[in-house]
Amino acid sequence: MLALACAAVVALAACAPATGLQSDGSVVVRAERAGAGWEASVPPAFVARTLVVTRPWARAVEVPRGFVPPPGTCRVWRADLAPALQRPFEPCPFGTPDLPSGSYLIRG
Questions:
Q1: 1 within a domain of the structure (yes/no)
Q2: Domains in the chain: how many in total?
Q3: CA distances in angstroms from 73 to 9, 69, 82, 101, listed in the order given
């Protein structure tokens, strides 16, 4: 009986959504490949929250509240830099920009 209950929990966890609002108030978004980097779009309603960017086969990257770009702007985010050292918000480029390897283009 316990094994059946454990199997049900594992099955439900596998079906849980990978993106969206989390219980701690953060928002998880999935990044898509963009040249040498990755790109993620933030729904306007979630701009004022902490952002957790996920991509296949890698650790999630956290963008703290206040560092997520507002609607209509973008920010190139490098996981190896502290939040205060990241590039400022900029107008969003059209198409896929040249991103440094492993960086993320966060679209507000």
A1: no
A2: 1
A3: 40, 6, 20, 21
Nearest residue to 50 (alpha-carbon basis) of 66, 30, 31, 32: 66
Q: Which domain holds residue 88?
A: 18-107
User: Taking residues 56-75, what's their average pLDDT?
Assistant: 91
Segment 79-95 shows an average pLDDT of 89
Q: Which of 100, 33, 36, 40 lies closest to 69 in space, CA to CA?
A: 40
Q: What is the DSSP letter of 24?
A: T
Which CA distances in Å does 92 have to 18, 50, 69, 73?
Answer: 25, 20, 10, 5
DSSP run (H or E) holding 67:
none
In a domain, 97, yes or no: yes
